[in-house]
């Protein structure tokens, strides 16, 4: 029987926690917190036990068409990132879920791409950080209303 990793510790609501990035092929570490796979396709050659993922959010990954078009071609990175951001705007429910997980503890977004600087998890992490900063700014200026 394979040893199981202890479940991620959830912190109280409101705690400010970071979002980490890690290739799915890297070994888990205690500091990973909740491990969330954000690829549409399961990483090749890894079993569910090997990956030790807490949550697989394949619907937050880029669409199949966008993923295929990008093909990890560096010259397409800027366009890919912009198009993926546009797709993420249509997935507010999943972004809200990730925001909530982040507020409760550290989360690590797992991805399978070889390029650690240009992949969907990088864009997603940046979007989550921007949302956190925008929310903080609205609270500080007193504009945190239901409509915003």
Automatic annotation (TrEMBL):
Xref: InterPro entries: YeaO-like
Domain of life: Bacteria
One Pfam family linked to the record: DUF488-N3i
Protein name according to UniProt: DUF488 family protein
Origin species: Aromatoleum evansii (Azoarcus evansii)
């Amino acid at each position: 029987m394979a040893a199981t990793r202890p479940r991620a510790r959830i912190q109280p609501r409101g705690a400010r926690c970071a979002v980490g990035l890690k290739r799915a092929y890297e070994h888990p570490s205690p500091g990973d917190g909740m491990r969330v796979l954000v690829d549409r396709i399961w990483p090749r050659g890894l079993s569910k036990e090997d990956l030790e993922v807490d949550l697989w959010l394949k619907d937050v990954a880029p669409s199949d068409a966008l993923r295929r078009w990008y093909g990890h071609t560096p010259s397409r990175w800027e366009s890919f990132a912009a198009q993926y951001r546009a797709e993420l705007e249509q997935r507010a429910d999943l972004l809200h879920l990730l925001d909530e997980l982040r507020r409760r503890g550290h989360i690590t977004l797992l991805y399978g791409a070889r390029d650690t600087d240009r992949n969907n998890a990088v864009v997603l992490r940046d979007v989550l950080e921007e949302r956190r900063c925008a929310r903080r700014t609205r609270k500080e200026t007193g504009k945190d209303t239901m409509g915003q």
